[in-house]
Amino acid sequence: MKERYRRQTSLVGKLRCWVSWQKARKFEQCIFQGFDLITMVSEADKQSSQVLLGGKRVPVEVLPNGVDCVHNRPGLAETRPCTLIYNGALTYSANYDAMYWFLAQVYPLIRQQISEVTLTITGSNAGVNLSGLQLDDSVHLIGYVEDIRLPVAQSAICVVPLRRGGGTRLKILEAMALGTPVVATPKGAEGLNVVDGKHLLIADDPATFAEHTVCLLQDPTLRQQLSINARQLVEQHYDWAQIGQQFLRLVEQIVDEREGSIL
Question: How far apart are CA 106 and CA 235, in angstroms?
């Protein structure tokens, strides 16, 4: 909400977003104090929550978003060369904005170098004004799919050109677990414990994003190395089995502390 406020250019828009932002802050400040434990999905969210608490002794812990590493695993489908995928419904404004930017400023640069490249966009686009997007015959809108794993596993690269939004990106974790290399913006990779050049490639401008994508499409060794490193990362830090155990330990700890204070 703070980012939305900063993006406004009109006085009315700024005022409306500022009021919404402040109302949300006040509500969170009030409600947070009634709990024995608060969990957030990233370190940045944890720090923001601690600021809102203003010194109140309510523990805030990071429990990241995760992925089922058994259900999502490499080798589910044969990879198709020169294929990109964005697994996000265009009905969500942040996803639409990501594709608006990518199709207008990044994708043409990629096609200049690799004319046979294709892009698949998954998820609902019901009610979305697609005329605002620079679509052509190489872009495939496949809508909702029963099993998102297959189109992601079949793609050579998962692109995540997000420029707004919060939390952490399940689409990146899913792609990493499936063995599909990722190219993302800093906002797209926000909140994830990833290293640029080791687990994925990060770019914040059209030319670099296109350059990274083309390089990855043309370098199977780099794709394989990123895929291996990313899979290891999700197994070690983002597997739901481990996150679930961490959550249980936190709950048991809070219960023990409550019982101890009553006694």
Answer: 31
